[in-house]
Amino acid sequence: MAFHPQDDGAPPPLRRRPPPPCVLLLRHPPHFALLDRPLPDGFRFLKPWESPLPLDGFLSSPDARPAEAILTSGGAPVTADMLRRLPGVRLVVTTSAGLNHIDLAECRRRGIAIASAGDVYSDEVADLAVGMLIDVLRKVSAGDRYVRRGLWSSEGDFALGSKLGGKRVGVVGLGRIGLQVAKRVEAFGCTVSYNSRKKKPYVSYPFYSDVRELATNCDALIICCGLNEQTHHMIDREVLLALGKEGVIVNIGRGSIIDEKEMVQLLVQGELGGAGLDVFENEPNVPEELLALDNVVLSPHTAVFTTESLSDLCDLVVGNLEAFFSDKPLLSPVLDE
Amino acid sequence: MDSIGVLLTCPMLPYLQQELEKRFRLFEFWQFPQRTQFLEEHSGSIRAVVGNISAGADAELIEALPKLEIVASYSVGLDKIDLGKCREKGIRVTNTPDVLTEDVADLVIGLCLAVLRRICASDKYVRSGEWKKGDFKLTTKFTGKTVGIIGLGRIGTAIAKRAEAFDCPISYCSRTVKPDCKYKYYPSVVELASNCHILIVACPLTPETHHIINREVIDALGPKGVLINIGRGPHVDEPELVSALVEGRLGGAGLDVFEHEPEVPEELFGLENVVLLPHVASATVETRNAMADLVIGNLEAHFMNKPLLTPVV
User: Fold this and answer.
1) pTM score, two decimals?
2) What pLDDT is stored for residue B110 in this prediction?
3) How far A281 CA sits from the closest chain B CA (Å)?
4) Which residues of chain B have pLDDT under 50?
């Protein structure tokens, strides 16, 4: 006769399972929402916006205490103060490409691991940077406007653009994104040189330790670095003047890497040839003067927002959370440099 | 050489006109509204025609110029020149290959990115103040998309090289299979269209390639597919293309050429999944100057009895 433990009618013994890890969401991750994707199972998500308390109050409340991880997107900062109030936090996962909204030093001090968006965005950001460079040099958006306004019929041929081949492109910040930009522009016959915090050992592109010198020797500058204390307003009037009347700047980093006021003035005065800008100092506000210029291409911070990258990103967020809480290595850890 | 009459069919790059004037007796065709009268008076001294994509040398013009020896086109495309007639009469023909290959290929990629990433539409979104009300929508990635090229000549090859830098798998359709070519060949445009995300027209316009993009091809490309045309307007059945775009049966289009330039179907103006350009694929200062130099170089070579630089006939 087979022995079935349940046969006597008693319930099966309780198996001890660890409670699901508690993850604090600073706001509902837009990336999941945009794809209509549910949050992953196996975690308990703390949602401060569902509390009657403001975020500040919620963080001090007992409801927030169990947090072991924080999931943030670019707009929601992870500050030292927040980390002080959540001593259980061991992991910060960010969905953004940039890290300037996280107090990295405080995380390091507390031994908190950080998972970034890794390589998920590199292709799309590089694609947009190159797309904007081509647009500015070849007047794609301006030409499209010309046609839609009926000017081709009434005014005749459109203005000539400038050839990409042979242009010297300076990449500011030769990280993942910068390297992808470099690879792409080379296929158009552009030559690449770069500025970075440190010279990269396995890279053959000419290195300039001074960004102004890079600008002097380039026809186009593409800003691919992160925003931090050193890079804030790094692209100043001097650098832009060095880039010159025919020079083009493309920014897919952060608005504040460029001294925006100076750049606008130089563009208006014709001292700078053109600009492709996906980011601004005070988004979504864009300096009015730029709206009247035909030699600028303006983009509403869309460099990462394709369906493919969001899908990859959601997979990566889930993958990082699952890895961390199963004591496995993070898929995309931010390592100290 | 300044007694040699050269007929310029329509206004072109000022640099070209200046250089022609320095060397030849230049007749600006559009300055003479009474064409028959003009031809009666001057046809005896016209030994060369410089044409372009708008106005070339058709049979009628060729017949009206008994002293014509050479047609130098300020373009690579030859669809506005009656090549058969030229051959018949022993008239030489030159064009401007190679110097514009890169510009055209560059613009193709620019159009792919502009359409897929909605660069022009998002620029408009910012300029119109819409960004203050909310974020722009999601777009789709270009890197890795399958690219199908119709015509793998100089321009097609240059396009493929650039698309490869974006990790795009490349396939093509051509009159013949290219030997030693690493890209996948499809024997028909419909099959190519069924198997790629972005279809690019990069072949010359001939009677065989007229309306090569028809309803069947558009259906095969489908509601997520994108058409890029930097060939000639007549490569595409334009009314079919317009209705497919308006009805959402085709995902998007980047068009530099149209059937009746400079007329562009107005139904396209309201669509954000199309990018419309005024035939600018070779329109850079550098390239137009290089094209002009080739025209001058070919004419000089001819009249000095030297080998032509870029002969077609």
Assistant:
1) 0.91
2) 98
3) 14
4) none
Beta strands in A42-83 (DSSP E): 44-46, 69-72
pLDDT tens, residue by residue, A229-271: 999 999 999 999 999 999 999 999 999 999 999 999 999 999 9
Burial B168-189 (b: 16+ CB within 10 A, else e): bbbbbbbeeeeeeeebeebeeb
* Closest chain B CA to residue A182: B165
Q: How far apart are CA B166 and CA A183, in angstroms?
A: 9
Judge contact between B185 and B134, C-beta under 8 A: no
> B15 near B34, Cβ under 8 Å?
no
* A297: phi then psi, degrees, rounded to nearest 5: -120, 125
Q: Is-catalytic flag, B23? A: no
B277 vs A: CB within 8 A = yes
Sort out which chain B residues have CB atoms less than 8 A from A121's CB and list them.
none
Please judge whether A284 and B131 are an interchain contact, meaning their C-beta atoms are less than 8 angstroms apart: yes
DSSP helix/strand/coil, B93:
strand
Most A CBs within 10 A among B154, B264, B284, hence the mutation to make, goes to B284
Report the alpha-carbon distance of residue B62 to residue A223 in Å, rounded: 55
Contact check, Cβ <8 Å, A131/B110: yes
One-letter amino acid for residue A117 of the chain: A
A6 close to A30: Cβ distance less than 8 angstroms: no
β-strand pairing of A113-115 with A91-94: parallel
Provide the shortest C-alpha distance from residue B289 to chain A (in Å).
11
Question: Tokens 């730029």 appear where?
Answer: A290
Buried b (16+ CB within 10 A) or exposed e, B213-234: beeebbbbbeeebbbbbbbbbb
Q: Which among A152, A165, A307 has CB closest to B262?
A: A152
- B126 and A189: CB-CB below 8 Å? no
Cβ distance A141 to B114 less than 8 Å, yes or no, reads yes
Contact A302 B139 (CB under 8 A): yes
Residue A150 gets the label, from left (phi > 0), alpha (psi -120 to 50) or beta, of left
Number of H helices, E strands in chain A: 13, 11
pLDDT of residue A97: 73
